[in-house]
Amino acid sequence: MSSCTSSVETPSDQPSACELKAKMKQRLDRIKRKILVMSGKGGVGKSSTAVNLALALAQDGYAVGLLDIDLHGPSVPKMLGLDDSQLQNGPDGLLPVEYLHNMKVISVGFLLGGAEEALMWRGPAKTGLIQQFLRDVEWGDLDFLIVDCPPGTGDEPMTAVQTLLDGTQSSGAVIVTTPQEVALLDVQKSITFCRHLEMPVLGIIENMSGFACPKCGEVVDIFKSGGGQQIAERMKAPFLGKIPMDPAMVMAGDSGKPYIAIQGDSATSETYRKIAASFMQDIDK
Question: Which residues are ATP-binding (predicted)?
């Protein structure tokens, strides 16, 4: 008996569960690698990390999709200067917003009426929207899909993990933290979450690790540093690198111009590129 067999009849004008599942698989099979950017708590720079890693891959010539499923705090449109963009329907689904010729973006922010609008949805509605973004968007052929998840281990990241692992390969999670102890404790929960759902942990990034002087570029450890690497070693997860606090990073996000696009020669941009390069295994342009 087919796993899609159901005793519940579907109206003739509505796709069946089998048809929806097949469409999801068809979409995801055209994406070579899916990378979830996660964090145990908010305020650690997860979205800026997702944006800059996506752009680093796009600058290297890969076809990249950036999916923002931080439904209650979508910041990707602002960081990319796409605040006024809206989604359009194509012949086979929603059309993502093009940031570059080889970088496409989807965010719930494109569906809201303005920056002050709040999304007040419960779990099932949020789950349905995330599945729609993966199933009904014309992503096309992608080398990478970077997914900016909300912080924590709730409905949204769980839906993304379970959907991306359903019959697909080459998925994994990158977990962003800061050196503070309270953030590091939550990183362990995120790693446990991924392992419980059998999502490979590609590595940990320690953000806001030291302060990069805007004049000389020297990085000074005004707070703790190295905690992310220690957690990675303790939890037997790869450590991908440190990103220092940099005033230019804040200005880049506020101006809608990603840091790696305007500070391309900096040591921090080079760190982003090295992290992105670690994802390029088994990918042919």
Answer: 40-47
